[in-house]
């Protein structure tokens, strides 16, 4: 369980697993059973899932229940997934896959299409990156995406990540502490 921390991105209130981060517009918190319908609504969208091929389409109520259950039960210490909440509504996620042995973490983010282009991904991921560096012994955070996923690559750049490498399909960016 992560301990108390401070971060320039906002207020951090760890209460057991009930960690909350606040940014100018957003609440980032752990998942709740009440998130199922909001999750179904924004993830049931082929355009949203275009570069996330593991997300089934159509995205049913059963898929949403499994998604929320997974986010509530995966080990928080290594696989934290924050729910992004805007004005009381779940609109996306920021997650990390932490590799303690190598002091690295992979960053992921996904925002409901209705909220694209408003800087939400950058605002949310900035807070989670600050929290991760403050609470975990990390030397770097990395992310990857499809070479053609220009929006996601732009998010990585705006987060201060730098291009690391690519192959025909994927590009990798890194942010050092
Ligand atoms: C990728 C994603 C997270 C971006 O979220 P977002 O909140 O819209 O991102 P932001 O608003 O913070 O930034 C998007 C950037 O892309 C730019 N952008 C917007 N539309 C674009 C387009 N059609 N082509 C290129 N760039 C575009 C924006 O202008 C912005 O850059 P700027 O601020 O320099 O102008 C969002 O589109 C998403 O969740 N997609 C579905 C899930 C997904 O693919 N996740 C990433 C997996 S690697």
Structure description:
By secondary structure, this protein is α+β, with helices and mostly antiparallel strands. It has one domain (4-176): Aminopeptidase, CATH 3.40.630.30. Helix content is 26%, strand content 28%. The protein has four helices and eight strands; from the N terminus they run ββααβββαβαββ. An eight-stranded mixed β-sheet has the order 1-2-3-4-5-6-8-7, with helices on both faces. Mean pLDDT is 92; it is low at 1-9. The site of coenzyme A (COA) has 20 residues, from β5, α3 and α4. Residues 48, 51-52, 109-111, 116-122, 145, 149-152, 154-155 line the site of coenzyme A.
Task: Kindly list the characteristics that best describe this protein.
177 residues, alpha+beta, Aminopeptidase, globular, disordered N terminus, binds coenzyme A
> How much helicity do the residues have?
25-40%
Main CATH class: Alpha Beta
Oligomer: single chain
Strand order of the largest sheet: 1-2-3-4-5-6-8-7
From the 3D structure, determine the CATH topology: Aminopeptidase
Work out the radius of gyration: 15 Å
Annotation, overall tally of beta strands: 8
Q: Mind sketching the topology for me?
A:
Layout: E1 20-22, E2 27-29, H1 36-43, H2 61-73, E3 81-86, E4 89-99, E5 104-111, H3 120-135, E6 140-146, H4 150-158, E7 162-166, E8 170-176
Parallel strand pairs: 5-6
Antiparallel strand pairs: 1-2, 2-3, 3-4, 4-5, 6-8, 7-8
Coenzyme A is lined by residues 48, 51-52, 109-111, 116-122, 145, 149-152, 154-155.
């Amino acid at each position: 369980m992560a301990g108390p921390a401070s971060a320039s991105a906002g207020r951090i209130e760890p209460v057991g697993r009930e960690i909350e981060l606040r940014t100018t517009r957003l609440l980032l918190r752990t998942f709740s059973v009440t998130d199922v319908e909001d999750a179904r609504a924004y993830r049931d969208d082929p355009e949203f899932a275009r570069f996330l091929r593991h997300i089934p389409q159509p995205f049913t109520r059963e898929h949403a229940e499994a998604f929320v259950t997974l986010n509530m039960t995966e080990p928080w210490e290594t696989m934290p997934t924050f729910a992004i909440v805007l004005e009381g509504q779940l609109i996306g996620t920021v997650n990390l896959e932490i590799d303690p042995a190598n002091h690295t973490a992979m960053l992921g983010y996904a925002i409901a299409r209705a909220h694209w282009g408003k800087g939400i991904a950058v605002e949310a991921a900035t807070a989670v990156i600050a929290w991760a560096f403050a609470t975990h012994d990390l030397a770097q955070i990395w992310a990857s995406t499809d070479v053609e996923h220009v929006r996601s690559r732009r998010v990585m750049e705006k987060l201060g990540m730098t291009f690391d490498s690519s192959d025909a399909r994927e590009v990798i960016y890194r942010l050092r502490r």
